[in-house]
Design brief:
Aspartate Aminotransferase, domain 2, Aspartate Aminotransferase, domain 1, 13 strands, globular, binds pyridoxal-5'-phosphate
């Protein structure tokens, strides 16, 4: 059938009598949230939303790779297609719908100004292989972003290209490995605290290191005695998160840096929680050698749902020569990119990604910085910490804070002691929170706290919204203590789907639709 070439649906042989292709039911009304089959199940073969003229293609260009079988696209009209995707979008919780209190993830509002800037054609419609003379503005923006990242962290160099925090960790450890190799040092061990984000030990392992855990004190900080005992001539780096994943500032951070350097190792700081200290503390002043910054957390570029991240890594003087290409430099002819490992980049450990990183994220992050200014960024940190302490104070009567003494930083951490003898678990509380209209908090992380519930309100939530969230949790606490187990065990009741077999979904994903 000639329609094949114009994207028309092409598989009438699998259609049902009513012209639909699969066996799934039509969307089933459930209030305003409708069940939605796959687009392949929904689509028929007798119609299409596009009507293109027959293409006059010269198939010879395809060197014999011309498609011979039907492509198998589902056929839907434009409104059917549109509604399919809008219905799917309604099943996603989003930061634009309500507070998203995931601890460690910093799910904060993405200012629309950032979005507007990122869509300017001069940033959005360029290609990484364009001649640099045609993308001077974009390079100037990268240069300015690099300047502010270095200024805010007090570090002399930054590698912009890593595409997420975890990628930044890899960049930092590869720079450390290159620096050690350059001095003929074959150290094999990386020390990581027990409360570390899983990416830290995973990164160290991928970079070829053996991971050794550092113990934690009863008040949630790195155990300095244990660190000192484990430092030695085989330790390449110590990876510490500050503020840490318990939401606490590592008050011995200067001593951690001193001990690390005295042992000839490098100090890697996981900077995912930089939003708690930006404008107030410069990691360079703390003795940090390398730190990634999650632009998608601290500087409000959108994330979640697998969207692009950006994890630039700031580097100390000692590591700067090993930073991966490319980087931006400027001279009399304007901005250009150092692309090859020669000259200034002779010691670069290589290249981390094909091009320069996530341009759209750079634009958003710089827009966020410039719209706040220096005083505004400091207030970001202050408000993030204030909001988390407010949550901690409001909930501590009913929930049990993991570290009750003293204030927290950007996130409030509770354990599950308050659920003792109720038969209800952290998972049940998280699911019941969905029925209250909120995305669950981070659960069971960090691993050092039993049944952990990690709540990060961020600086962008109003007091009213934080109150709504706290009241929802307090309602649940009252219900749990009153023995209303059913409200928890069956939750969520108001979501399109209830509890999924998440293990099976992760271990045996079904990624392909078969009719
Ligand atoms: C988010 C996070 C990471 C990893 O960052 P990604 O951008 O998700 O790769 C690492 N460490 C901590 C503490 C984090 O919160």
């Amino acid at each position: 059938m000639t329609a094949v070439a114009v994207g028309r649906p092409t598989r009438p042989e699998v259609a049902n009598e009513d012209g639909r292709r699969g066996a799934a039911p039509e969307a089933e009304g459930r209030g305003l949230v409708q069940d939605e089959p796959l687009i392949f199940e929904r689509g028929g073969w007798e119609k299409t939303g596009v009507d293109l003229p027959e293409a006059d293609l010269d198939a010879s260009d395809l060197a014999g790779l011309t498609r011979t079988a039907p492509i198998g696209l589902p056929g839907l009209s434009e409104p059917e297609t549109l509604r399919h995707y809008v219905r799917l979008s309604q099943k996603n919780h989003a930061i634009d719908l309500a507070m998203y209190p995931l601890g460690s993830c910093t799910m904060k509002h993405n200012p629309r100004l950032n979005e507007k800037m990122a869509r300017l054609p001069g940033f959005a419609d360029i290609h990484p292989l364009q001649p640099v003379s045609t993308v001077q503005g974009a390079l100037a923006l990268m240069d300015q972003l690099a300047h502010w990242l270095k200024t805010l962290t007090g570090m002399p160099a930054v590698a912009l290209s890593p595409k997420a925090g975890a990628h930044g960790e890899l960049c930092g450890l590869l720079a450390i490995r290159a620096a050690l190799e350059a001095r003929g040092d074959g150290r094999r061990t990386v020390l990581v605290p027990v409360s570390a984000h899983g990416t830290n030990p995973a990164t160290a392992a991928i970079a070829g290191y053996q991971v050794v855990e550092i113990a934690q004190t009863a008040d949630g900080r790195v155990d300095i005695g244990d660190l000192a005992a484990k430092l030695g001539p085989d330790v390449a780096a110590v990876m510490v998160t500050n503020p840490n994943t318990c939401g606490l500032f590592e008050r011995d951070v200067l001593e951690i840096a001193r001990l690390t350097h005295a042992a000839g190792a490098f100090f890697y700081c996981d900077g995912a929680n930089f939003n708690a200290i930006v404008g107030r503390v410069r990691p360079g002043d703390l003795g940090v050698d390398a730190m990634h910054i999650n632009l998608h957390k601290t500087f409000s570029t959108p994330h979640g749902g697998g969207g692009p991240g950006a994890g630039p890594v700031v580097l100390s003087e000692a590591l700067a020569p090993f930073a991966p290409a490319p980087w931006v430099t400027s001279g009399p002819e304007g901005f250009r990119l150092i692309e090859r490992n020669t000259g200034d980049a002779a010691q670069a450990f290589g290249r981390l990604s094909a091009f320069h990183g996530q341009m759209g994220m750079y634009v958003r992050a710089l827009a966020y910085m410039l719209s706040h200014g220096a005083d505004g960024l400091r207030q970001v940190a202050e408000d993030a910490v204030l909001a988390a302490n407010y949550v901690k104070a409001r909930l501590s009567g009913e929930l049990t804070p993991a570290f009750p003494d003293g204030p927290c930083m950007h996130e409030a951490l509770f354990d599950d002691a308050w659920l003792e003898d109720t038969g209800i678990t952290t998972l049940d509380v998280a699911k019941a929170l969905i029925d209250e209209g909120f995305h669950p908090m981070t659960m069971y992380f960090p691993l050092v706290v039993h049944g952990a519930m990690l709540i990060e309100p961020t600086e962008t939530e109003s007091k009213r919204e934080i109150d709504r969230f706290c009241e929802a949790l307090l309602r649940l606490a009252a219900a749990a203590k009153a023995g209303d187990v059913a409200r928890f065990k069956g939750a969520p009741f108001k979501a399109p789907l209830r509890r999924l077999d998440e293990t099976a979904a992760a271990r045996k994903p079904r990624l392909k639709w078969t009719p």
